[in-house]
Structure prediction request, 848 residues.
Amino acid sequence: MMRTVEIFLVIMIITSAFIIASFFAVLPSPRQVSPLNLRRLALTTLQTLDADYDLSETIFKPSGDPEWAELQIALSACLPPNIVYNLTIYEVLNGENMLYDAKKSISNAESLGIGSDASSYLVASSNVTFSVTPEKIGEQWGGGTLYILNCSDANGWWITGYTAQGLAKDLRNLLSPYFEDTIMVQDTTQLGKILNGTSLQGETLRNAVVINTFGEAVPIPAGYYSSPSVGYDETHTSYARYCNTLGLRVHQYNWTWASIVGWPLYYVSNTAAFSGNQNSWGIYGMRMVGSYGLRAFLQGLDNQPYSYSTSSTGSPGVVYLSSEASYYSNYYGIYPSPYQTSTRALPTSILTDFNLEVGLSVFNQVGSWIPGAIYRHVAGGSTIVTGSFLALGLTRTPDIRLTAVSLLAYYQPRLYRSDYSAAGTSRLAVLQLGQTGGI
Amino acid sequence: MTGATIDHMISVTVFVGAMLLFISLFNQTIQTAILYQRHRYIATKCSDMLDGMLLNPGNPIEWGKTNSAPTGFGLQDPEFTQYRLSPYSLMRLVSSTGTPITYPKTGATYSNMSMGFGNFLFVPYTKAINYSIATKLLGINNTYGFQLTITPIVTVSVKETHSANPLTLTVNVTGTGFPLANATVSYCFLKVVPKGQGQYPSYTSSFGTAFADVEGEAVLSFPGVTSTDSYALIAYAHLSGLVGIGYHERVSPGARTRYVIPFIDSFADRRVIMAHSYDVHYFEPPESAVFYNATFVLLTEDFTLREMPMENSTGKADKVNYGEGQPYKTVTIPTYNPGILIITYMSNNEYGVVLMPWGMSSMAFPVTFGDSPLGKEWVATDTRMVLVNGIAYRAMLSLWSLAGYSVVS
Prediction:
């Protein structure tokens, strides 16, 4: 008998457990099981109403304006009949204590039921123009001239698929807002003039930036800059001497010389002077200088005596934008690929050999190779910069956005943006939706 | 001893019975809870799938303007972001509601998206995307069924309240069961101009603007239009960003049997076939040819219609006959901008006009695509507001599982 009693006790316990479990295990209502996505509906409703900026115009009107009534009619007309809404418009404040101030609310029901969801939509007044004004490089420190080599009488190398002139145009579009003057150097004669220290359009020559858009080649003016001991090394039948002169000019005028791709100064080009010569790859109007050009240039930059000797580059492979370059890529809104292939990285030994320091690492250093950087020359015992050199030792073809980001990250011109949170310029529309009827 | 045995047997029997009962009860509760979870999953899937369709242009992104099947399904207008749909991708969806029509001269069957007589849209099955392809592209073949309905939010209906001179038309503008009071109604009135037997008819157009009253009604009056004139009215109603379109035609009685039916022939080439209605509907006895004059008009930003010259001037005004040896004619729509193909026609001195939208939104045609949710056990739905070339639509997706489980066992 005791066993039967015990069993009934067990049954009572399990029954209690079942009742308690059933009490707590309340199944959700179908509306909760299969809810309408009210948040998305609210957002798309606001977007629809603002398709022609009608919403943006209306919510800046005075509260008694008839357009509010039209907005309410439109809102009621476009939502399903079982949806109740509350549209509240907030003024965006720039105060410290309060961010939003409710301006007006329209609704078609006293309450939104037991469950509701909302979306917000920020609109700007059509009376306000938001703009971004860049600071000009050179405003504070002088200079501010951008020379872009656009020489019609020279050919490029390792800019496969592009022309130097096309790259020059793109660079001007990208960079001219940041410079006081942007000068397109149209031929090698004009290049010769600036090398002589003569400005082309009254611009400031010192502290300028010179971008060589010809890749591994560099335009060479005929005449003086191709002559022996200035541009031509008779002993070694090489134009490495011209590269040395370029380095001297960069040093003399405190320029920033930008090489956009490959091994800098590997060829010199002048289609008239070298019309019968080719660069050993079949491109006429060009002479190969080889690795001597870079070394000669760096000697000039460091104001060392010219000596004909080779330079070297490395091939670290895939390289990544430095954190600083990535930051400024975001800041200026220029987005090259964050990883690139480097096959012409310069060795770190040049830093000590030529009194250079890295002003900006464009790419992270790989071992003893620097895939891309802006080097500045500071003579021993001095703190004054006398010339800078941007070398992007990447494989072809060039991405000129990298050049733009590098220069902007180096000079860091500020962007003055209109303040979106200024009082009276922006309002926030919050549409809250609820469902009526059904379960 | 015997008492203990009986006690033991009773207790064991009761215990086993009770356990079976409780297992059954708990099992039922658990089973129902699992099913509810599955239904919730369907609801989430429905919301995701709807966003997936509406926020993705598909692949290739301009598949709506080609004749080939896409490799990825999506309806977003590739020129825009957000919930803006391509009027051409929508046009290539096989309608689930209209009765398909076969045109013997091409041997093709056409998806019927027409909205009554005179407002035609026929798309060949061979160049349209059917439900089966869509489910495969969406990766839900044999696992989920769906129906996508895209309905204009603003309904603009036109009713003839006085047919004789002056013609009076009442335009009624409503939202979702709510009149669009004070809506601006911009209209284009096209009156067919008879040119005589054997001639191609043309039309004159006039534009105007009216305002709906508090009940959403606007009355339009057209002096000089008699009860025998054929005409078409296209009305655009707009209020606070909502735009809707309505249309209405009147044709001569005989022009309801002999008329031109436009069939889309090629999306890629923007080619439309002009067919004699007798070739499609097999009317008897033999009847005369239909002379037509086709014009393509665009909706401008100020809600007026602007004519665009046709590329192929020979097909623009022509005649079509029926029966063997009487080939159909074609016209080429000059642009990929959405607009309306207006075809005025004449047969036996009876005049009429038919319209065909180029781009789903031009005449605010609705779209119903997919399987019917009727009879399905648990259907999750979700809704978004979308824009198709500036026209406000509501997109609703109904989704159900084909896995075979039920709400309650």
